[in-house]
Design brief:
The complex is a heterodimer of chains A (about 270) and B (about 210). By secondary structure, chain A is of the alpha/beta class. Chain A contains twelve helices and six strands. Chain A folds into two domains: about 5-30 and about 250-270; about 40-240, 3-Layer(aba) Sandwich (Rossmann fold), CATH 3.40.50. The chains are: A alpha/beta (about 270), B mainly alpha (about 210).
Chain lengths: ~270, ~210
């Protein structure tokens, strides 16, 4: 007993890894399901999009890459599915060059599912370097930032973009974030031009955006895999985020267990030694 | 002259952009500067690529430690570039759904590699949670308790244990967390303003080195 807690403290980390790996795998293989209760900040995003008149145009910005894909990509799918179901329109851009294909793949998939036509219902404008400069320029004159889509087709040839001059014709900017581009959307697009901004982000980044949410500088915040699962629930389908919720629940419980065990072993081991 | 000219350009640009922000008739000037900025930002990508290639070519040339990795990087970079141009030529865009070659590598090589690197974090976090997250002081104990509440509240299991846990988690995020974040943001903003003024006035010259 004397050495037990000291031995627990010095436990081989590979045991923790195996327990964690099982915590990830078992819920997926066993197909456990859990009830999802959408949080108020995610519901705000859904309600805002729902309240826009049919045919509204949303500007979606892909500001993440493959490392954050498991968390943010399900948000993109759920939001696109919602927008297309409402017969609204989408313009997609990217501030992270390596996120371009992710945005495009999701856009093509959801458009195909909803029977939408490229150029008429949606368009992909691609990546432009410059971040803040691109955001500010879109507010002054959209074509000074994006004069053509990713294929080189002039914007005026695309019905979906023909009437877009600046943010005044955009119902909301939806920024999907894995870094600090969300700050730029608030500081340059919302603060200067008053455009509505909805942010979706990884769970790590989400706390940075709470001040904007409380100050009403963003309409809503979809944070992490839980936020994506909330949105899937609101749209009414079970996607990868909803499936991942059981895994995330088990892993969070395991981490809490590890913290408690570590502290217990530390306290008792110290007392005994 | 080598120092004075860049300092003068910085001063004039900074002052002009401040004026352009507040005086609508000259706001067109800001647009012009932003266009230039976009062009320069684009060129920096090329400069970055240039530095990367030169750094790794030197490593290969002198057979420094890890030169094989540099070789893999140079080969991958060139292959990606070639496939990108090939896809562009064939499909009109490097990432068009029909540009299967590059998209195949992005989907089946790049995404799994990057996702794997990021997923490994879960294991490091588990190890750190067990070994380092100790309630040694009051502050550490408060951090531990709030982390537990938020971790439970951000998953459906929290609601299942007790419906009040997500509410408590939201409170932690909306009040203590937010207050601390806002304080940090204000500090960063004030620091940013002070630093910008120092750069504009020529007191901060480290960027000239």
């Amino acid at each position: 007993m004397n050495t037990f807690w000291i031995r627990v403290q010095q436990m081989d980390r590979r045991i923790l890894y195996i327990v964690l790996a099982l915590g990830v795998l078992v819920p997926i293989l066993a197909r456990w399901k859990m009830d999802i209760h959408p949080s108020p900040e995610v519901k705000k995003a859904y309600d805002f999009i729902e309240a826009q008149p049919e045919g509204s145009t949303f500007l979606i910005s892909i500001d993440y890459d493959a490392a954050s894909m498991p968390e943010v990509q399900p948000m993109l799918h759920a939001i696109l599915r919602h927008i297309f179901r409402k017969n609204d329109r989408v313009l997609m851009i990217a501030h992270w060059p390596l996120g371009v294909p992710l945005g495009q793949l999701a856009l093509e998939e959801e458009a195909r599912r909803a029977g939408k036509v490229y150029g008429k219902d949606y368009a992909f404008l691609g990546f432009r370097p410059g971040l803040a400069a691109v955001i500010v320029n879109m507010g002054k004159d959209f074509r000074s930032a994006f004069s053509e889509d990713y294929k080189g087709t002039p914007l005026d040839s695309l019905p979906v973009a023909r009437g877009i001059r600046n943010y005044d014709q955009i119902a909301a900017v939806i920024g999907l974030e894995a870094g600090s581009v969300g700050d730029a959307w608030v500081q340059y697009a919302q603060a200067r031009y008053g455009v509505h901004v909805i942010l979706g982000s990884t769970a790590v980044v989400a706390p940075d955006y709470y001040p904007y949410l409380q100050a009403n500088q963003i309409v809503a915040l979809i944070g992490g895999l839980k936020g994506a699962a909330d949105y899937e629930r609101l749209v009414g389908y079970v996607g990868t985020a909803s499936t991942g919720m059981t895994t995330q629940s088990v892993v969070h419980l395991l981490l809490i267990g590890f913290i408690l065990l570590g502290n217990l072993a530390y306290a008792l081991g110290r007392r005994q030694s | 002259m080598q120092r004075e000219v860049p300092l003068f350009i910085t001063f004039i640009t900074g002052i002009l952009l401040i004026i352009a922000f507040f005086v609508p008739p000259v706001s067109k000037l800001e647009e012009t500067f932003l266009d230039w900025y976009s062009i320069v930002a684009g060129i920096t990508l090329i400069l970055g690529l240039d530095s990367l290639i030169i750094h790794h070519l030197r490593k290969i040339q002198w057979k420094k430690e890890g030169w094989v990795h540099s070789l893999a990087l140079i080969l991958s970079l060139n292959l990606t570039l070639l496939w990108g141009f090939w896809s562009w030529w064939k499909s009109g865009s490097p990432f068009a759904p029909s540009a299967s070659f590059l998209l195949y590598f992005y989907t089946y090589v790049f995404i799994p590699l990057q996702a794997t690197m990021f997923a490994l974090l879960a294991f490091f976090i588990a190890s750190a949670a067990f070994r380092a997250f100790r309630a040694r002081s009051l502050e550490a104990t408060l951090l531990l308790i709030s982390a537990t509440i938020v971790m439970l509240g951000r998953t459906p299991i929290g609601h299942k244990i007790h419906p009040f846990i997500p509410v408590l988690s939201d409170w932690v995020m909306n009040f203590p967390q937010l207050a601390a974040k806002r304080g940090i943001f204000l500090g960063i903003a004030l620091g940013g303003i002070a630093f910008s003024l120092r750069v504009i006035l020529g007191m901060e010259r480290s960027y000239l080195r």
